[in-house]
Design brief:
The chain contains 9 helices and 5 strands; from the N terminus they run ααααβαβαβαβαβα. The chain starts with a helix and ends with a helix.
């Protein structure tokens, strides 16, 4: 794994991140390995934020750098994207506009062969239902970083059930304050602590 890329991401050195990603791509390094290095750098950013070495502006900057770097790897899936394992629908629940975790998950899922439909942030229940009807995914992800939005996740999941769309559908949730108690409260199927766990759970459920 590229320590140079990890450190550049952690230090928010945008120019070095981009040049290093381009170098690694030209050397034939697998996209997943590059994403793993970027993720490790992002993990350091998160720790520095917790330790108050970084602030919200740095978090936003890190997400922008991560997104820019991921675009060099083909970005996340969209219309017409090729897929080995089917479609994964992802979004941040309404009344929450955090997107760092969501962006990491969508990028990693796409790199692992899933067709990713990114609904964005502040996603209303109706938009989830519309996407489930349109794409018929077996797994969807709901991201949340605000405890005040837990009831929104619960409402969303209940509405999906009432619409008759829960059969054979697994609903994953994730985000800083989300834990097993949250999962039980909102009625989700599983809590994913990181992007790799999302990949592994989704592949297992789809019988890969």
């Amino acid at each position: 794994m590229s320590k140079k890329l990890i450190d550049a991401m952690a230090d928010l050195d945008e120019d070095l991140v981009i040049s290093e990603v381009k170098t690694l791509v030209s050397q034939g390094v697998p996209a997943l390995d590059i994403i793993a290095a970027l993720q490790e750098g992002m993990s350091t950013v998160g720790k520095r934020f917790e330790e108050k070495e970084y602030f919200l502006s740095e978090l936003i900057m890190s997400a922008e750098i991560f997104n820019e770097a991921s675009q060099l790897l083909g970005g996340v899936g969209g219309e017409g994207a090729t897929s080995k394992y089917g479609t994964f629908v992802m979004g941040t629940i309404y009344d929450d506009i955090h997107d760092i975790g969501k962006n990491i998950v969508t990028t990693v899922m796409s790199s692992n062969g899933f067709h990713v439909v990114d609904l964005g942030v502040d996603v209303p229940t109706a938009k989830y239902i519309e996407a489930i009807k349109q794409y018929q995914p077996k797994v969807i992800g709901i991201s949340c970083l605000l405890t005040t939005a837990f009831d929104n996740i619960k409402e969303c999941i209940q509405s999906i059930e009432k619409a008759g769309l829960r059969k054979d559908l697994k609903i994953l949730i994730g985000g800083g304050p989300v834990d097993e108690a949250t999962c039980k409260y909102v009625g989700a199927d599983h809590v994913c602590k990181n992007a790799q766990e999302t990949v592994e759970y989704s592949k297992k459920y789809m019988g890969v």
